[in-house]
Amino acid sequence: EQSPAQGTDTLDIAVIGGDGIGPEVVAEGLKVLSAVTAGQGPKISTTEYDLGARRWHATGETLPDSVLEEIRGHDAILLGAVGDPGVPSGVLERGLLLKLRFSLDHYVNLRPARLYPGVTSPLAVERVAPGGIDFVVVREGTEGPYVGNGGALRVGTPAEVATEVSVNTRYGVERVVRDAFRRAQGRPRKHLTLVHKHNVLTHAGHLWRRTVEEVGAEFPDVETAYQHVDAATIFLATDPGRFDVIVTDNLFGDIITDIAAAIAGGIGLAASGNINPERTAPSMFEPVHGSAPDIAGQGKADPTATILSVALLLDHLGRGEDAARVEAAVAADLAERGSAPRSTSAIGDAIAARVG
Amino acid sequence: EQSPAQGTDTLDIAVIGGDGIGPEVVAEGLKVLSAVTAGQGPKISTTEYDLGARRWHATGETLPDSVLEEIRGHDAILLGAVGDPGVPSGVLERGLLLKLRFSLDHYVNLRPARLYPGVTSPLAVERVAPGGIDFVVVREGTEGPYVGNGGALRVGTPAEVATEVSVNTRYGVERVVRDAFRRAQGRPRKHLTLVHKHNVLTHAGHLWRRTVEEVGAEFPDVETAYQHVDAATIFLATDPGRFDVIVTDNLFGDIITDIAAAIAGGIGLAASGNINPERTAPSMFEPVHGSAPDIAGQGKADPTATILSVALLLDHLGRGEDAARVEAAVAADLAERGSAPRSTSAIGDAIAARVG
Ligand SMILES: CC(C)[C@H](C(=O)O)[C@@H](O)C(=O)O
Ligand SMILES: CC(C)[C@H](C(=O)O)[C@@H](O)C(=O)O
């Protein structure tokens, strides 16, 4: 078990700025982390890891085992974004990002969606009454179609066959479903929606469904619902207020959390935690957005998603009050944002000042 | 090869009304089909097939082989909706709907998304300038995660493992990609977007990507783009005007066509064709919505999606002018719809009168 970091000792953060706007937004996240812990909190100690497209171009390495082992020794990981158009598709995704999630057993991929006052949704106003979007997606992070169990035969010929295998285990589904029930139980509405496609993906779907039913018996006060993934996207676009906690598989979660981000004001605000709830390894916090090479180095990136990811980090490490202060500071900043653009560091400064 | 039905002889339509609101909306589709072909067109001959939840409850049958063979002898199939809450998940989907799509080689699942004047989108007005949503999704219909190649081990025990295998072939991907390019070439913007997730589903994704590149060489005037499925959903919610033709796999297509339906005014307007472009078997036309048992038999269902599916049927059978008349009649009806609800048959009557 890692240090729970609830005392006033040191928080050891492994920092992976990554590529593009990654390092810029991570700098603001760390600024806010320092500000909220200044004085009364733990000391923040950071170790920067040079991982991502730049390292791959220079050395061909994605995540050497020795680096993974060093990272394991930290209390948490803060990641910006990795990738650039010069790296072949899949290399950094499988070799770095998913390798971290799988090796460190981040089975809860936590993605809150909340429409803050002052933020404009692409949905029509009557769809999103104030407070009308406030749910959290618990996306499974270590199974499903993401396991990399695929292959291809006769590649490049007219007889090519390519397969992708979604692997789902009772072990893996049960633990994430239980985590989602716990989270639902801790929220005022106590409502959990399973999103899957059990009418077509019958084997995996029935495993998910049975598991929700059986684990649900431990949480009699939590109400459950089910939506096929296709129907869920309709409700996300027409009536997002119906959702409280959603639990779903790795791929469906990837898709619906991007819709969730879009309707809650955009990917610039969407935070995520890749969580190992038992803390057998450090959890990883990252904005949902990518490295946006087109605006890198210009101080234009919005660091808000990273700062909200820092709030998730604090919460995971048992510092719920600090997390709440960061979130409140972000909410206050968002409420007062005009249309005049501010630089990455100006936004970080403003939020840091509010938590300080 | 089936009768191309371009002359003035008979159009043999296999009709599967199905369950819930299915028979009601199909009746209006047939009403409009008769009206548009009256006088100058072919004779319409229909054969009703009793398939769906009712038959399954009564006999345990989903789609007997003899019925499938009879259906094969028709020029096209018009389907309403099948299913009710009493049928276990997957039984009618795998045993009837997908069995029809797979047996009759409906490899092009065609789903247009168009926001008609007078129709309200759940998106904010500035996202959907008039004419701002007008694209078509070409969803692969006979491969991918829908093939039913999954299984489960140690079901009901803590050691359960359930798999779902997505099977993708060059044969299957190439033919649907070529169809999508042809459709893109026939549209003013000549733009085709591949939607996949090739950074994670690397084997299938790279097959799709290479195929789009290679088939694209035959269509030098068509511009292509690529979006990961998660990013595509963001654009569907924020900037749907960017899409012209989308080609994608069976599961991604299922998901994004429901979002497409939502942003274009709802599932009550979303038409689809399950098309066998070579006409080696009849194609099947159906609204995207389900059987809606809660409003069945009340004359409340909107038959518009079915009527637009009839337009796709006419177009597929080489009767493009009739198809255009049906679509224009629907557009005119939608433009004048007030907020006062009309019955299913009143909507059908109004549209039939306009095409007559
Ligand atoms: C980059 C990619 C591998 C990743 C995913 O698919 O999980 C991303 O889309 C995300 O949602 O964090
Ligand atoms: C009912 C179901 C099998 C079907 C599908 O997943 O294809 C439906 O959602 C659709 O989109 O036509």
UniProtKB/TrEMBL annotation, chains A, B:
Domain Isopropylmalate dehydrogenase-like as annotated: residue spans: 12-351
Primary localisation category: cytoplasm
PROSITE patterns to which the protein is assigned, alphabetical: IDH_IMDH (PS00470)
Pfam families in alphabetical order: Iso_dh
GO molecular function: 3-isopropylmalate dehydrogenase activity; magnesium ion binding; NAD binding
Function of the protein: Catalyzes the oxidation of 3-carboxy-2-hydroxy-4-methylpentanoate (3-isopropylmalate) to 3-carboxy-4-methyl-2-oxopentanoate. The product decarboxylates to 4-methyl-2 oxopentanoate.
Protein name: 3-isopropylmalate dehydrogenase
Organism name: Oryzihumus leptocrescens
Underlying gene: leuB
